[in-house]
Amino acid sequence: MEKAASIYEAHHVLNGEHPVEWANVLRGLATVQDAMGNLEDCADSYTEALELLGGACGKDHLDYGEVSLNLSCIELRLNQLDDALEACKEAQRVFELIGEGCEPQLASALMNTAVVYKKRNKNNRAFSLLVQACEVYKQHTGEDTVEYALCTYNLAMVLGSMQRLREAAPLFQRCASIYERSTPEGRDHPQAKAARHYLSLCGDVAEAENDPRHTAEPPPSYSAPPPLSVDDETQVEGAADVAADVAAAAAAVALPAEVPGAAGPPSYEEASSSPTI
Fold it and tell me: Which of 41, 101, 136, 272 has the smallest set of CB atoms within 10 Å of its CB?
């Protein structure tokens, strides 16, 4: 891939032609750089692709939104929060403008924006965005997808940080169950293990999928975000230490979604290879 990119770059520099094709090569290169852990080079590749696409296709084009979303993931992992927030907002703007057909990408942009706010300890704002993202995923991808599971996981992490553990626990349960059913790794999937771990920290919610307490009562639904303030938040009595453990882990376990590049070799799976809150 590096060799192919170098050859194509030489052609691009000499002729100044085919900016979209070169942008697609850069997108493929960025996925390889990400897999190799070269995050700064990956961000540079996405940034260059974004500039090319903005000039050739315009900043309202779908590809521009998708690359902005990918770039936001990398910038989050580099802890470049200002840049990540800008990229998230650009992606959200494009997907909202295009509308029909872009709902899953819009949900991913909302989730990534929530990750930024969570990292800045703005839990109420993160909560509101994650509720919106969960609802969009639920309506347009279904409730048995890893994208939806990842969003419920992030929402549970935010609720844990707010010490709302009775609401967080069934969301961790749902996330773990979806990953176990929907991925080849099953219970060994890292995200399933993480969800089970934080479920155990929540205390009095049983783990087993066939437990009547889980099958009889579904996880909470947040179809409309309730207004929240620090003064009004409900805290679970005696759960401060557990909530602190969940909150302390938030910087390492909330995975922003990522859209694979449109060209080049197949990209890695969105949830399993992306970063976390």
Answer: 101
The pLDDT of residue 47 is 95
Buried/exposed code over 87-97 (b: 16+ C-beta within 10 A; e: otherwise): bbbbbbbbbee
Range of the domain at 104: 2-273
DSSP calls for 188-246: GSHHHHHHHHHHHHT-SS---TT-HHHHHSPPP--SSPPP--TTT----TT-HHHHHHH
User: How many other CB atoms are found less than 10 A from the CB of residue 98?
Assistant: 16
Place of tokens 């349960």: 173
Which pLDDT belongs to residue 258?
A: 46
∠ CA 94-254-95 to the nearest 5 degrees? 10
Q: What is the three-class DSSP state of 97?
A: helix
Nearest alpha carbon to residue 194 among 277, 77, 78: 277
pTM equals 0.72
Question: Do 179 and 173 touch, CB atoms closer than 8 A?
Answer: no
Give pLDDT, residue 94: 95
| CB within 8 Å of 147: residues ≥ 6 apart | 104, 107, 108, 137, 141, 257, 270, 271
CATH number at residue 122: 1.25.40.10
Ranges under pLDDT 50 in the chain? 7, 14-15, 205-210, 212-219, 221-256, 258-276
> Using the 8-state DSSP alphabet, how is residue 263 labeled?
S
Report pLDDT digits (tens) over 170-200.
999 999 999 999 999 999 999 999 999 999 8
- Token output for 164: 């709302």
For the chain, the domain total comes to 1
